[in-house]
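Weekly sync, protein design subgroup
Attendees: M.S., D.O., the rotation student, P.L. (late)

Item 1: inverse folding check
M.S. brought a backbone from last month's batch and wanted to see whether the design step gives back something sensible before we order anything. D.O. pointed out we never logged the input encoding, so this time it goes straight into the notes. Structure tokens as presented (452 positions):
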């Protein structure tokens, strides 16, 4: 599958951010501005892990010769961090090639002006040339987004380690400081925070879009620090407790789901994005304070089951973007604009974590069902495409092969069917785009251990 996705990208869209597999041409979204080669950088480590070394060499050569950040381009700080910085860092740690270290640091430095706000909470969007930042015009009262400013930590800690410059670590540690000073409604973190006033925007809380990877990075910051970042640990388990109390519910049909919270009222909807939480909760279950009964692992398994149901209850056996638990339905999308599937990884990601922790064969079986559905409905002549309605009797393709399909979906599938010591959790932590970063142990950290 990786060979097919890659070969088609290379053939029809080489150097573009993504591939349009039906019309067989390049594609770019505004997330990357005029940056180029998102699929190449996102796929580097997957190629390496799958031992596709010729392809990895071609990708490396492209990075050496063409990956350029000196442009008048407005980019999403979050997307560029998780895909480009994360991708380059992983490629460096896996291959040892200096070019990736150099480019990661160069790009990290380009992102620093985003933090020039009164609070140090970064802007969502940044012009790489002028260093001028702003927020998404649609975000509540000019706010920055929790899942965006809260998903820089892992990469920035590694940038400090690799560059010898503490500035990266200082920027992300300051984000925690700002958050620590704020009151949290019911212990929850609203998705919107104003970078000028340092006050919350609308009280919307989500473990899916706009919130998701903030929680993931609290846990992984602790794990990546070789369990020395006690603050990260406490923030994660406290946040999870508040989520359990306020957001997690069981449907009358017995399916556990994570709802969204809007000013104290629940919306009984769960996003495909939220399905990553099964894997996250499983990953954290072992270190959980006061969890003698193994309750967190059970919760993770229930979320995995719910997300599997969201796939099983469709015609194409692929999951919708969001599914609901109200109006007489369970784990089914009811709105037309929530019925699409864009090759997202979260459900397979959770199967992979659950497989590693339980070795229950059902997770491989569920992963295999997803492979078959992808082959049957998403594979087209020129690559893999998302579909517009998973309840339709035949697929209507959206003509985009997302870069995260190669970075995450295919990598997690590969790891689901690999041995546990292939990128073991003991030594590696995956960033939110599935780019593995090494755990920083005490001896390796040297003088930077103070940053953790
Ligand atoms: C990816 O870019 C990352 O997984 C991110 O955390 C959420 N969205 C996409 C995949 O769905």
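Designed sequence read out in the meeting:
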């Amino acid at each position: 599958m990786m060979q097919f996705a890659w070969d088609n990208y290379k053939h029809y869209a080489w150097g573009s951010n993504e591939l349009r597999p039906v019309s067989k041409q390049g594609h770019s979204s505004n997330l990357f501005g005029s940056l180029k080669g998102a699929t190449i950088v996102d796929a580097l480590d997957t190629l390496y892990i799958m031992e596709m070394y010729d392809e990895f060499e071609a990708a490396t050569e492209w990075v050496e010769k063409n990956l350029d950040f000196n442009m008048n381009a407005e980019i999403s700080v979050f997307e560029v961090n998780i895909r480009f910085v994360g991708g380059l860092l992983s490629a460096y740690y896996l291959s040892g090639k200096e070019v990736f270290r150099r480019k990661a640091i160069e790009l990290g430095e380009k992102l620093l002006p985003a933090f020039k706000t009164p609070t140090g909470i970064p802007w969502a969007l940044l012009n790489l040339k002028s260093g001028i930042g702003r927020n998404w015009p649609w975000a509540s009262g000019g706010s920055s987004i929790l899942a965006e400013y809260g998903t820089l930590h892992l990469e920035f800690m590694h940038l400090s380690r690799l560059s010898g410059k503490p500035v990266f670590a200082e920027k992300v540690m300051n984000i925690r400081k700002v958050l620590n000073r704020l009151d949290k409604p019911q212990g929850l973190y609203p998705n919107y925070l104003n970078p000028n006033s340092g006050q919350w925007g609308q009280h919307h809380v989500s473990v899916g879009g706009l919130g998701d990877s903030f929680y993931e990075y609290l846990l992984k910051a602790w794990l990546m620090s070789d369990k020395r970042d006690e603050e990260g640990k406490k923030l994660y388990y406290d946040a999870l407790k508040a989520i359990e109390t306020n957001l997690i519910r069981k449907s009358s049909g017995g399916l556990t789901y994570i709802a969204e919270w809007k000013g104290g009222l629940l919306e009984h909807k769960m996003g495909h994005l939220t399905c990553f939480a099964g894997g996250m909760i499983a990953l954290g279950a072992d270190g959980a304070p006061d969890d003698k009964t193994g309750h967190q692992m059970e919760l993770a398994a229930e979320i995995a089951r719910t997300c599997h149901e969201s796939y099983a209850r469709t015609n194409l056996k692929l999951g919708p973007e969001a599914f609901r638990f109200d109006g007489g339905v369970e784990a089914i999308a009811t709105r037309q604009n929530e019925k699409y599937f864009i090759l997202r990884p979260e459900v397979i990601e959770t199967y992979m974590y659950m497989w590693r922790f339980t070795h229950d064969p059902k997770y491989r079986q569920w992963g295999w069902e997803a492979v078959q559905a992808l082959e049957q409905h998403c594979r087209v002549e020129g690559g893999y495409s998302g579909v517009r309605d998973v309840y339709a009797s035949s697929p209507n393709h959206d003509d985009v092969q997302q870069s995260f399909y190669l970075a995450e979906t295919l990598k997690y599938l590969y790891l689901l069917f690999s041995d546990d010591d292939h990128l073991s959790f003991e030594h590696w932590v995956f960033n939110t785009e599935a780019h593995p970063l090494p755990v920083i142990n005490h001896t390796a950290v040297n003088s930077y251990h103070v940053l953790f």
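Discussion: Residues 445-452 have pLDDT under 50 and may be disordered. Residues 82, 213, 273, 344-345, 404, 408, 432-433 surround 1-deoxymannojirimycin (CB under 6 Å).
Action: P.L. to compare against the previous round before Friday.
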